[in-house]
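tmp note - Phosphoenolpyruvate carboxykinase [GTP]
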Amino acid sequence: MSTPFEQFVKEMQEFFTPDKVYIMDGSEKEAKQLAKEAQETESDGKKVLKELNGKVYPNSYYHRSNPNDVARTEHLTFVCTPTKEQAGPNNNWLDPKEAKEKMNALMKGSMKGRTMYVIAFVMGDPKSKYAKNCVEVTDSVYVALSMRIMSRVGKDAIARIGNSKDFFRGLHSIGDVNPDRRFVMHFPQENLVMSFGSGYGGNALLGKKCYSLRIASYLGYNEGWLAEHMIVIGVQSPDGKITYFLAAFPSACGKTNLALLQPVFPGYKVWTLGDDIAWLNIGEDGQLYAINPEAGMFGVAPGTGDKTNPVMIDTLKNDKFFPTLFTNTAVNDADNSPWWEGLSKETPSDLTDWQGQKYNASAGKPAAHPNSRFTVSIYNCPTLSPEYDNPNGVPISGIIFGGRRASTIPLVYECKDWNAGVFTASIIGSETTAAAGGAQGVVRRDPMAMLPFCGYNMGDYFQHWLNMGKKVKKLPKVFMVNWFRKDENGKFMWPGFRDNSRVIKWMIDRIEGKAGAKESEIGLLPEEGALDTTGLDVSKETMDKLLSVNKEDWKKEVAMVEEFYAKFGDKIPKDLRTHLEELKQAVNK
Ligand code: SAT
Ligand code: MN
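out:
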């Protein structure tokens, strides 16, 4: 008798008709073999991987994707629930039967002439009761290697699946990388994703946004937990105490930098647990606990340098885990190492750009794609928390929400209570970035930074957040931040990066009941002098502006939120409507 896993592999082989089937064991030896294979394999008109200079960045390989395939494609991403209402206005919807027919037509036989890689993986530590079993099949060796970095792949996963039928199924085929024949289809009720025509990040590494957010958020809704687009950090203060935080920002708004932060104050230290996704469960003691289901980081390269994120540079230079991948960065031809804007002050004279052309700086275009990425094991991170592998996760004391906003949103404020926090998170707006295809810099609502990742109706999701608040015993404090506020001349007023630790310090002091706050129309702002600005080169006037509430701006904000809420009709929980009404009154007073 074959196991459900073996049956699935057989079915997939019959469906995709690859020339070869390879089941990954997850070993380093295998990864080295696959990296070798990838350097010999042609896909989309070029070799899949190129070896980079291992002396500069150990175990590093370079991948260039098709220029039409450099980010998630939200307009080609669908949630296929039995009814359109279940998917909600936050998702593109297709009837599951219709979606399958469409995908079957594209995918049947699409691995002919290729190898089908079978990736059994666990999201979360295999010892954790919160971890989930998954299998992805793919014809991309780049995806296979990336998944080895991003999750726990191989023998242990196959053993954990055992005789169970209960595992996520991810079907991925790169096809001809044609945006007209590209779709990412989610079937939450069947624990299934079908993805065709893209080899990039969140479209292709199905354990990431597809499973660990869209499908998992739906599981969490049914099972009483939350799958969130959040980093997890522990912040140690001089007395040795560690306070655990979650932070949610839209893609490419600095989550990875915050996850690896070096605080400016002596005696403070950030312990890294996760840089993108957190699963939140209520522990036996009634507190909210977080695990990071991932095992690696798929971070934005541009802007990462010794000044902005030295810990990440150390992570990339660590030789612990094989391999580290660089995708769509530039290459410095002088020493065959990856390069991107912000890595060094000077642009090297001899660069090949992300499209494989000799770089000409005078053309005014960046050498690395703005959404170019590194893929690196979290075990390479020197600030990895000793609690990272704790199967129970870590107890959360604070949740930080944020967005990228030139105006309106103060540097930081605290929400009065859990429900006010849920309301505040539900109205987050953020300027769009290069992490998704489409226009950049446009403000759109991005509740909980989950708009592109919530696998069901966001009205139901908001209610689920409110319900969780009733069940958690010691509720975390909820904060809202904005590192990106600009002055009249369009200049950032806050230095960001390491100085963000000043804001975190205020939060810790609030959690401990040690720092003051003053009421405002939108929540609690730091009291005069409560935010430690020692040694900071920002004038008092600018600080005041950073922490100000402009009622005229907020009137416009309220109008935008009303428009957004209207899309969800009566799915918006009553409590959130009341909060919006109160906010409207306060800013119109
Ligand atoms: O491409 S990913 O979805 O994995 C990265 C991101 O947008 O956060
Ligand atoms: Mn992300």
